[in-house]
Every structure is written in C-alpha cells, then in structure tokens.
Task: structure prediction
Amino acid sequence: MSTVFACEFPDHLWFDVERDVWILALENGFLRLGMTDPAQTRSGKVLHVRARAGKTQPIGKSLATIESGKWVGPFPAPVAGTVVKVNQAVLADPNLINRDPYGAGWLVEIQPENPDWHRPDLVLGEDVAPLYQSKLKEAGLTCMRCAPLDGEDDGSALP
Result:
C-alpha cells in the first residue's frame, strides 16, 4: 500500500487520478468502483448517496450523486459501462465511504462497455504515488478518515 500525505492507495486497485475514482476488476468481468481516500477527505462527511442499477454512462459522466455537508456532486465513470449493482450498505450508511473508502465504502459495480477497459491513464496502485504526490501537494490536502465515536459502533462518526 502506498501512502501520500496520509492518503492510502492499495497496490491492487486501479486509479483514475483525474477523477479520483478507484477500480477493482472482479472475477466475473464486472468492475467495482469507489471514491479514493483524497476524494472522501475533500468531500467531508458523506450524508447521502443516490445511485441506481441499469444506468449506462460514458467515461466521465455521473454514475451516482454524492452529497456531503460541503458538497453535492457526481461520482464520475472512470470506464464506460452499465451499473449492475449498487452498494446497499452505502445507501443505508453513506458515511461508510469516509470510514472505509476501499472496502465497505465501495459505490457501484459496472459491466464495462469494452472488456478491454484499461486505458493508459489508469494507474495501478503500486505506481500511483508520484502522481498523487504532486496532485495532493498542489491542493494542500492531507487525508483523514471519519471514525466511530469513542465506545460506539452504531455507524455514527465524527467529520
């Protein structure tokens, strides 16, 4: 795992650095997608997620809408495809994105339009640190995660 300014980047994931989205290729050919650690930090505590299966989008268009205390905006497609699954746990507890962006906080699974979805600008986690080093330095961003309140495990979190 690479770490840049306290932001984590798992080696086995692919990253669309421009859009701050990660990609996990699943064995069934689908792609699981989520917000990167820097994206969840910039957003602040995520309050609401809207997404639905069946939505087909080209690269860069919105697969979901993310709402936080600071921001409402799109979750952009890093790869053209159709949403085949939405993470119901995130719909019920959007703050999972802040607490576990690369695990329980994934957003959607898509069927890529093209089985050969790799593009030259998608970077494997083990190679992404230099790109995020300059991006995060320019933005003055250091990552932080929301954590459960002391002694509580009810899904509530501090921003």
User: Anything to note?
Assistant: The chain is about 15% helix and 35% strand.
